TrEMBL record:
Posttranslational modification: Is synthesized initially as an inactive proenzyme. Formation of the active enzyme involves a self-maturation process in which the active site pyruvoyl group is generated from an internal serine residue via an autocatalytic post-translational modification. Two non-identical subunits are generated from the proenzyme in this reaction, and the pyruvate is formed at the N-terminus of the alpha chain, which is derived from the carboxyl end of the proenzyme.
Membrane-spanning segments: 22-47
Annotated protein name in UniProt: Phosphatidylserine decarboxylase proenzyme
Swiss-Prot/TrEMBL cofactor(s): pyruvate
Keywords: Cell membrane, Decarboxylase, Lipid biosynthesis, Lipid metabolism, Lyase, Membrane, Phospholipid biosynthesis, Phospholipid metabolism, Pyruvate, Transmembrane, Transmembrane helix, Zymogen
Catalytic activity: a 1,2-diacyl-sn-glycero-3-phospho-L-serine + H(+) = a 1,2-diacyl-sn-glycero-3-phosphoethanolamine + CO2
Gene Ontology molecular functions: phosphatidylserine decarboxylase activity
Subunit architecture: Heterodimer of a large membrane-associated beta subunit and a small pyruvoyl-containing alpha subunit.
């Protein structure tokens, strides 16, 4: 689904870096010529790093979209450390050449935002999920499914920016955060989610489907079973009642038939007595 993306193609978070690099490059070029080359390289790097292009979301209501550009480094069954429930974990590693804006993978409501200070080890390592500085967004989809997506700082990244808060409504593809200079995104999904990516796959924010969520929650299915059993039991109890009613309704017919038989027998007895006495 394509819609207007209300953000400049060069992220505002990068304007100070790009502006400073450009001013320094021009000044040093005027003063020292080729000695300005490293400053021009930094300016070009900052320009590409802070790009933030618009993306089109797939028209699939059950799809969980990638929250960032990068490469899949984890697809595994584990425990969501924020909700303490079994989950499917999918991690996206972003190098310094990927787009670093984060976008919501679902349509839903934010229930909590939890920031945790930490280290700055290589974000591609598994221990980064537990040791690095990180910011978790806990959200609930429109169908009631719980999803957690976590911004994790990396070896070079030193700044996590999150623009959403508890109670906010997010739409798929909506920009909600930014991490500067290399990082990682962990997504924790319900245990019955079906992963559609594998380790090593390259993904694009909003455009790539990470997984698909069944529309109904397991709890709802479990609760529906006793209800169905209760309905069946009630039906079984009612059925015999109908049978008794039917049997009762047939009693008058039985009584009429018995009366006819007795009347015929009486007539036969009288005929025999008349013939005998006659």
């Amino acid at each position: 689904m394509s819609r207007f993306y209300p953000h400049p193609i060069i992220a505002r978070e990068g304007w100070p870096f790009i502006g400073s690099g450009l001013i320094a490059s021009i000044f040093i070029t005027l003063c020292a010529g080729w000695w300005s080359l490293p400053f021009w390289l930094f300016t070009v790097f900052a320009l590409q790093f802070f790009r933030d292009p618009a993306r089109s979301a797939p028209q699939d209501a059950d799809a969980v979209l990638s929250p960032a550009d990068g490469r899949i480094v984890v697809v595994e069954r584990t425990t969501d450390p924020y909700r303490r429930v079994p989950s499917l974990k999918i991690s996206v590693f972003m190098n310094v050449f990927n787009v670093h804006s984060q976008r919501s993978p679902i349509d839903g409501t934010v229930t909590a935002v939890e920031y945790t200070p930490g280290k700055f080890v290589n974000a591609a390592l598994d221990k980064a999920s537990a040791e690095n500085e990180r910011n978790a967004v806990l959200a609930t989809t429109r169908s009631g499914r719980e999803v957690t997506f976590v911004q994790i700082a990396g070896l070079v990244a030193r700044r996590i920016l999150c623009y959403t808060q508890a109670g906010a409504t997010l739409r798929r593809g909506e920009r909600y955060g930014f991490i500067r200079f290399g990082s990682r995104l962990d997504v924790y999904l319900p245990a019955d989610a079906q992963a559609l990516v594998a380790i090593g796959d390259k993904v694009s924010a909003t455009e790539t489907i990470l997984a698909r969520l069944p529309p109904a929650t397991p709890e709802a299915t479990t609760e529906a079973t006793p209800i169905a059993e209760a309905v069946t039991a009630d039906t079984a109890d009612i059925a015999p009642g109908h049978e008794k009613t039917a049997s009762t309704e047939t009693l008058p017919c039985t009584e009429v038939a018995q009366t006819d038989i007795e009347a015929s027998a009486e007539k036969a007895r009288r005929a025999v007595e008349k013939e005998f006495h006659g």
